[in-house]
Amino acid sequence: MRTTTGWQSLDPNSNVLTRVTIERRDLRPDDIAVRIDYCGVCHSDLHRIHGMLGEKDLVPGHEATGVVIATGPAVTGFAVGERVAIGTIIDSCGECAMCEAGQENYCYNQATPTYGGTDRVDGTPTKGAYSREYVLREKFAFHLPDGLTPAAAAPLLCAGVSVWEPLRAAGVGPGSRVAVAGLGGLGHLAVKLASALGSEVTVLSRSAAKEPDALSLGAAGLLVTTDEARTAAAQGRFDLILDTIPADHELTPLIGMLGLDGTLCVLGNPLLAGPKLWELGAGRKKLTSSGTGGLRQTIEMLGFCAAHGIAADVEILPSSEIETALNRLADSDVRYRFVLDMSDLDA
Q1: Smallest Cα–Cα separation from 227: which of 253, 201, 247?
Q2: In this predicted model, what pLDDT tens digit does every residue of 122-167 receive, in sequence order?
Q3: Taking the model in full, what pTM does it have?
Q4: Does domain 2-158+313-346 sit in CATH 3.90.180.10?
Q5: In the chain, what are the domain boundaries?
């Protein structure tokens, strides 16, 4: 059994995490061991630390980058010293229709999450990448392309692919009109990716003060949603709206901005109550969501980001400041993603 150090949540009422020793399994034939250098802090980490899914004693973290430090005897795709990235899932059944389609994130037999799940072989709980070392099957690790810096690339493994999949599913490209509601960790990457795909992007926000940021990220403009006249004028305007707002809010105004056959994809708070069906029926509109990404889409997204110079805008903190990161994230005090530097766990 291998051991490493990480940060564990022991109190669902607190953002204080405790430094603990973590056991990692000895390498199976197709496993790699990864030294985690950077791990993003996702809003879902905050929700799950506070018991959204009824879990306890979590070691969070599911968007990480690092370096391979050991390989199992059957590993062929990675070598010691190579840069690697780890996302939200680390196993699946590999046999169902979803897995065969490259959508392991939707595995009919339940994908194994990077933390808060159960190992498919030995039944132990999975513990995440707020740690210095992680062990996983090579199939579920990703080569980190040249041109992507490890810290800024880490959030691509969750926030990035979470917006990439619905953009690709909607066929977004030149001529598409895309709106992004909320300009946070997911939202700022949605703007960058949709713009790079060639679409016209509008940010939907309650604050006009965010317009300079929206434009710098690649948006064509910002629509202030508290301006009733401008909101009414936007009726039927968009082909796709990516709703990245993490708080409770009404969906009806967003649905009204969709054009014929338009899609509203709710990403920031998928537990929101849905609209009345007649609101979707007026224009054959679609309400959908997305659950991070499968292997094929994640590889495609990383390659696209490397080719177009896209990465997250991050604030890097030592991992020992995770409480600060979580407190500030709860207050929306970050532009646009916290990333933990895990090297201080060596001390």
Answers
A1: 253
A2: 999 999 999 999 999 999 999 999 999 999 999 999 999 999 999 9
A3: 0.95
A4: yes
A5: 2-158+313-346, 160-288
